[in-house]
Amino acid sequence: MKPITDTELAQFQRFIFDEAGITLSAAKKALVMGRLGKRLSHHQLESFGEYFQLLVSGQHPEEVQMAVDLLTTNETYFFREIKHFDFLREQATAARQRGQLFRVWSAASSSGEEAYSIAMVLADCMGTTPWEVIGTDISTRMVQDAERALFTMDRARHVPQDYLRRYCLKGNAEYEGKLLIERGLRSRVKFRYANLNAPLPELGKFDIIFLRNVMIYFSNDTKQQVVNRVASALKPDGYFLVGHSESLNDITQVVRSVAPAIYQKFA
Question: Which pLDDT belongs to residue 245?
Fold first, then answer.
Protein backbone atom coordinates (compact mmCIF):
# COMPACT_ATOMS: atom_id res chain seq x y z
CA MET A 1 0.00 0.00 0.00
CA LYS A 2 1.40 3.36 -1.02
CA PRO A 3 1.32 6.28 1.47
CA ILE A 4 -1.47 8.76 0.84
CA THR A 5 -0.44 11.78 -1.22
CA ASP A 6 -1.53 15.35 -0.59
CA THR A 7 -3.76 15.18 -3.66
CA GLU A 8 -5.42 12.00 -2.42
CA LEU A 9 -5.88 13.49 1.06
CA ALA A 10 -7.61 16.48 -0.54
CA GLN A 11 -9.97 14.07 -2.31
CA PHE A 12 -10.98 12.47 0.99
CA GLN A 13 -11.31 15.88 2.63
CA ARG A 14 -13.85 16.80 -0.05
CA PHE A 15 -15.50 13.38 0.22
CA ILE A 16 -16.19 13.59 3.97
CA PHE A 17 -17.24 17.24 3.70
CA ASP A 18 -19.75 16.41 0.97
CA GLU A 19 -21.05 13.33 2.79
CA ALA A 20 -21.11 14.60 6.38
CA GLY A 21 -20.23 18.31 6.44
CA ILE A 22 -17.05 17.50 8.38
CA THR A 23 -13.94 19.59 7.78
CA LEU A 24 -10.90 17.32 7.95
CA SER A 25 -7.60 19.16 8.43
CA ALA A 26 -4.33 18.24 6.72
CA ALA A 27 -3.05 17.22 10.16
CA LYS A 28 -5.40 14.20 9.96
CA LYS A 29 -3.37 12.50 7.22
CA ALA A 30 -2.22 9.70 9.56
CA LEU A 31 -5.79 9.20 10.78
CA VAL A 32 -7.08 8.82 7.22
CA MET A 33 -4.34 6.31 6.38
CA GLY A 34 -4.90 4.36 9.58
CA ARG A 35 -8.66 4.14 9.28
CA LEU A 36 -8.96 3.50 5.56
CA GLY A 37 -5.83 1.38 5.06
CA LYS A 38 -7.62 -1.89 5.86
CA ARG A 39 -10.23 -1.13 3.22
CA LEU A 40 -7.50 -0.89 0.60
CA SER A 41 -6.24 -4.29 1.69
CA HIS A 42 -9.77 -5.68 1.65
CA HIS A 43 -10.27 -4.59 -1.96
CA GLN A 44 -6.67 -5.43 -2.93
CA LEU A 45 -5.92 -1.87 -3.97
CA GLU A 46 -2.47 -0.32 -4.01
CA SER A 47 -3.27 3.35 -3.58
CA PHE A 48 -5.72 5.63 -1.82
CA GLY A 49 -6.48 7.17 -5.19
CA GLU A 50 -7.81 3.82 -6.40
CA TYR A 51 -9.95 3.51 -3.28
CA PHE A 52 -11.32 7.01 -3.81
CA GLN A 53 -12.30 6.10 -7.37
CA LEU A 54 -14.09 3.03 -6.04
CA LEU A 55 -16.08 5.28 -3.66
CA VAL A 56 -17.13 7.78 -6.31
CA SER A 57 -17.94 5.18 -8.96
CA GLY A 58 -21.48 4.84 -7.65
CA GLN A 59 -21.20 1.06 -7.75
CA HIS A 60 -20.46 0.49 -4.05
CA PRO A 61 -22.86 2.48 -1.84
CA GLU A 62 -22.17 0.14 1.08
CA GLU A 63 -18.48 1.03 0.86
CA VAL A 64 -19.29 4.74 0.91
CA GLN A 65 -21.12 4.21 4.20
CA MET A 66 -18.18 2.17 5.49
CA ALA A 67 -15.76 5.00 4.68
CA VAL A 68 -18.03 7.56 6.36
CA ASP A 69 -18.21 5.33 9.44
CA LEU A 70 -14.44 5.03 9.60
CA LEU A 71 -13.74 8.75 9.12
CA THR A 72 -16.29 9.87 11.70
CA THR A 73 -14.81 10.53 15.13
CA ASN A 74 -16.71 8.61 17.83
CA GLU A 75 -15.06 9.53 21.13
CA THR A 76 -17.54 9.53 23.99
CA TYR A 77 -18.34 8.19 27.45
CA PHE A 78 -21.21 8.14 29.95
CA PHE A 79 -22.20 11.39 31.70
CA ARG A 80 -19.73 13.51 29.78
CA GLU A 81 -19.94 17.17 30.93
CA ILE A 82 -21.96 16.39 34.05
CA LYS A 83 -23.49 19.87 34.49
CA HIS A 84 -25.70 19.22 31.47
CA PHE A 85 -27.16 16.20 33.23
CA ASP A 86 -27.82 18.27 36.35
CA PHE A 87 -29.73 20.67 34.10
CA LEU A 88 -31.55 17.75 32.46
CA ARG A 89 -32.59 16.50 35.91
CA GLU A 90 -34.05 19.93 36.76
CA GLN A 91 -36.05 20.06 33.53
CA ALA A 92 -37.25 16.47 33.87
CA THR A 93 -38.43 17.10 37.44
CA ALA A 94 -40.40 20.14 36.28
CA ALA A 95 -41.93 18.13 33.42
CA ARG A 96 -42.96 15.42 35.87
CA GLN A 97 -44.80 17.99 37.96
CA ARG A 98 -46.65 19.12 34.84
CA GLY A 99 -47.39 15.50 33.87
CA GLN A 100 -46.28 16.12 30.30
CA LEU A 101 -44.52 13.79 27.86
CA PHE A 102 -40.82 14.71 27.92
CA ARG A 103 -38.71 14.03 24.81
CA VAL A 104 -34.93 14.30 24.42
CA TRP A 105 -32.82 13.87 21.29
CA SER A 106 -29.16 12.89 21.31
CA ALA A 107 -28.44 14.22 17.83
CA ALA A 108 -24.93 12.80 17.42
CA SER A 109 -25.25 9.77 19.66
CA SER A 110 -22.17 7.84 18.51
CA SER A 111 -22.16 4.45 20.29
CA GLY A 112 -24.98 5.44 22.63
CA GLU A 113 -23.37 6.50 25.91
CA GLU A 114 -24.95 9.96 25.85
CA ALA A 115 -28.43 8.66 25.02
CA TYR A 116 -28.30 6.03 27.76
CA SER A 117 -27.02 8.61 30.25
CA ILE A 118 -30.04 10.75 29.40
CA ALA A 119 -32.32 7.74 29.81
CA MET A 120 -30.92 6.94 33.26
CA VAL A 121 -31.70 10.46 34.45
CA LEU A 122 -35.23 10.37 33.03
CA ALA A 123 -35.95 6.91 34.44
CA ASP A 124 -34.83 8.20 37.83
CA CYS A 125 -36.75 11.51 37.73
CA MET A 126 -39.92 11.03 35.69
CA GLY A 127 -41.79 8.42 37.71
CA THR A 128 -44.90 7.40 35.76
CA THR A 129 -44.79 10.51 33.56
CA PRO A 130 -44.04 9.37 29.97
CA TRP A 131 -40.68 10.12 28.38
CA GLU A 132 -38.77 9.25 25.22
CA VAL A 133 -35.12 9.33 24.16
CA ILE A 134 -34.04 9.24 20.52
CA GLY A 135 -30.43 8.83 19.46
CA THR A 136 -29.23 9.44 15.90
CA ASP A 137 -25.84 9.17 14.23
CA ILE A 138 -24.37 9.34 10.74
CA SER A 139 -22.51 6.07 11.30
CA THR A 140 -24.64 2.97 10.81
CA ARG A 141 -21.96 1.00 12.67
CA MET A 142 -22.36 3.29 15.68
CA VAL A 143 -26.16 2.93 15.55
CA GLN A 144 -25.75 -0.85 15.67
CA ASP A 145 -23.29 -0.62 18.57
CA ALA A 146 -25.68 1.68 20.45
CA GLU A 147 -28.56 -0.75 20.01
CA ARG A 148 -26.35 -3.57 21.29
CA ALA A 149 -25.73 -1.51 24.48
CA LEU A 150 -22.56 -3.37 25.50
CA PHE A 151 -19.74 -1.14 26.73
CA THR A 152 -16.30 -1.39 28.32
CA MET A 153 -16.24 -0.45 32.00
CA ASP A 154 -13.80 2.42 31.43
CA ARG A 155 -16.58 4.28 29.58
CA ALA A 156 -18.70 4.17 32.77
CA ARG A 157 -16.29 5.78 35.23
CA HIS A 158 -18.63 8.81 35.66
CA VAL A 159 -21.87 6.84 36.07
CA PRO A 160 -23.28 7.34 39.61
CA GLN A 161 -22.99 4.15 41.65
CA ASP A 162 -26.75 4.02 42.19
CA TYR A 163 -27.31 4.14 38.43
CA LEU A 164 -24.73 1.40 37.87
CA ARG A 165 -26.66 -0.86 40.24
CA ARG A 166 -30.08 -0.03 38.81
CA TYR A 167 -29.49 0.26 35.09
CA CYS A 168 -26.32 -1.72 34.25
CA LEU A 169 -25.39 -5.41 34.29
CA LYS A 170 -21.77 -6.26 35.04
CA GLY A 171 -20.23 -8.76 32.65
CA ASN A 172 -18.33 -11.89 33.62
CA ALA A 173 -16.46 -14.71 31.88
CA GLU A 174 -16.07 -13.65 28.22
CA TYR A 175 -17.71 -10.30 29.06
CA GLU A 176 -15.35 -9.49 31.94
CA GLY A 177 -14.62 -5.76 32.03
CA LYS A 178 -17.83 -4.87 30.22
CA LEU A 179 -21.33 -3.74 31.13
CA LEU A 180 -24.69 -4.16 29.46
CA ILE A 181 -27.53 -1.66 29.79
CA GLU A 182 -30.41 -3.52 31.41
CA ARG A 183 -33.23 -4.53 29.11
CA GLY A 184 -35.96 -2.26 30.52
CA LEU A 185 -33.93 0.91 30.01
CA ARG A 186 -32.52 -0.31 26.71
CA SER A 187 -36.01 -0.82 25.31
CA ARG A 188 -36.92 2.81 25.96
CA VAL A 189 -34.12 4.33 23.86
CA LYS A 190 -34.55 4.31 20.08
CA PHE A 191 -31.64 4.75 17.68
CA ARG A 192 -31.80 5.78 14.03
CA TYR A 193 -29.48 6.79 11.24
CA ALA A 194 -29.48 10.52 10.47
CA ASN A 195 -27.11 12.79 8.57
CA LEU A 196 -27.33 16.24 10.15
CA ASN A 197 -25.96 17.72 6.93
CA ALA A 198 -29.03 16.58 4.97
CA PRO A 199 -32.82 16.72 5.41
CA LEU A 200 -33.69 15.02 8.69
CA PRO A 201 -36.06 12.08 9.14
CA GLU A 202 -39.36 12.84 10.83
CA LEU A 203 -38.55 12.67 14.52
CA GLY A 204 -41.18 14.93 16.08
CA LYS A 205 -40.54 17.78 18.51
CA PHE A 206 -38.24 17.71 21.52
CA ASP A 207 -37.96 19.44 24.88
CA ILE A 208 -34.16 19.16 24.88
CA ILE A 209 -31.64 18.43 22.12
CA PHE A 210 -28.04 17.44 22.85
CA LEU A 211 -25.64 18.31 20.01
CA ARG A 212 -22.31 18.31 21.77
CA ASN A 213 -18.68 18.21 20.66
CA VAL A 214 -19.64 17.84 17.01
CA MET A 215 -19.62 21.34 15.55
CA ILE A 216 -15.87 21.68 16.01
CA TYR A 217 -15.64 19.54 12.86
CA PHE A 218 -17.90 21.86 10.82
CA SER A 219 -17.19 25.04 8.88
CA ASN A 220 -19.15 28.14 9.91
CA ASP A 221 -21.55 27.78 7.00
CA THR A 222 -22.17 24.13 7.86
CA LYS A 223 -22.65 25.01 11.53
CA GLN A 224 -25.38 27.48 10.62
CA GLN A 225 -27.17 24.99 8.40
CA VAL A 226 -26.93 22.14 10.92
CA VAL A 227 -27.97 24.20 13.94
CA ASN A 228 -30.98 25.70 12.18
CA ARG A 229 -31.99 22.29 10.83
CA VAL A 230 -31.68 20.59 14.24
CA ALA A 231 -33.24 23.47 16.18
CA SER A 232 -36.34 23.20 13.97
CA ALA A 233 -37.11 20.02 15.95
CA LEU A 234 -37.21 21.92 19.27
CA LYS A 235 -40.47 22.76 20.96
CA PRO A 236 -41.02 26.47 21.71
CA ASP A 237 -38.88 27.32 24.76
CA GLY A 238 -37.00 24.01 24.30
CA TYR A 239 -33.29 23.76 25.10
CA PHE A 240 -30.31 23.18 22.81
CA LEU A 241 -27.15 21.88 24.51
CA VAL A 242 -23.69 22.12 22.94
CA GLY A 243 -20.23 21.12 24.14
CA HIS A 244 -18.55 23.40 26.66
CA SER A 245 -15.85 24.26 24.13
CA GLU A 246 -18.50 25.25 21.56
CA SER A 247 -20.64 28.34 21.06
CA LEU A 248 -23.66 29.30 18.96
CA ASN A 249 -22.84 33.01 19.15
CA ASP A 250 -22.94 34.48 15.63
CA ILE A 251 -24.16 31.10 14.34
CA THR A 252 -27.94 31.42 14.68
CA GLN A 253 -30.70 33.71 15.90
CA VAL A 254 -33.09 30.83 16.56
CA VAL A 255 -31.85 30.24 20.12
CA ARG A 256 -30.45 32.45 22.88
CA SER A 257 -27.85 31.69 25.54
CA VAL A 258 -29.28 31.04 29.03
CA ALA A 259 -26.27 29.32 30.69
CA PRO A 260 -22.83 28.07 29.64
CA ALA A 261 -23.32 25.76 26.61
CA ILE A 262 -27.13 25.88 27.08
CA TYR A 263 -29.42 27.74 24.66
CA GLN A 264 -33.18 28.18 24.57
CA LYS A 265 -35.39 28.47 21.55
CA PHE A 266 -37.47 31.60 21.18
CA ALA A 267 -41.16 30.84 21.73
Answer: 87
Radius of gyration of the chain (CA): 20
- 154 with 248, same domain: the answer is yes
Averaged pLDDT score across all residues of the chain: 94
The structural domain count of the chain equals: 2
Clarify whether 256 is annotated catalytic: no
**8 A C-beta contact, residue 252 and residue 224:** yes
Confidence of residue 267 (pLDDT cuts 50, 70, 90): confident
User: Can you give the pTM of this predicted structure?
Assistant: 0.89
- Cα–Cα distance measured from residue 102 to residue 233, given in angstroms and rounded to the nearest whole number: 14
Of 69, 80, 137, 155, the catalytic one is 137
Backbone angles phi, psi at 130, to 5 degrees: -65, 145
Q: Does 137 participate in catalysis according to the annotation?
A: yes
Q: Which amino acid, one-letter code, is at 43?
A: H
* Whether 35 and 166 share a structural domain: no
Q: Is residue 122 part of a domain?
A: yes
Please give the Cα distance from 135 to 75 (Å, whole number).
Answer: 15
Cα 31 from chain centre: 20
At what angle are helices 61-71 and 140-148 packed, to 10 degrees?
Answer: 70
Domain, as residue range, for 54: 6-71
Burial of 17 by CB count in 10 Å (0-12 exposed, 13-18 middle, 19+ buried)?
A: middle
How far is 228 from 110, CA to CA, in rounded Å?
21
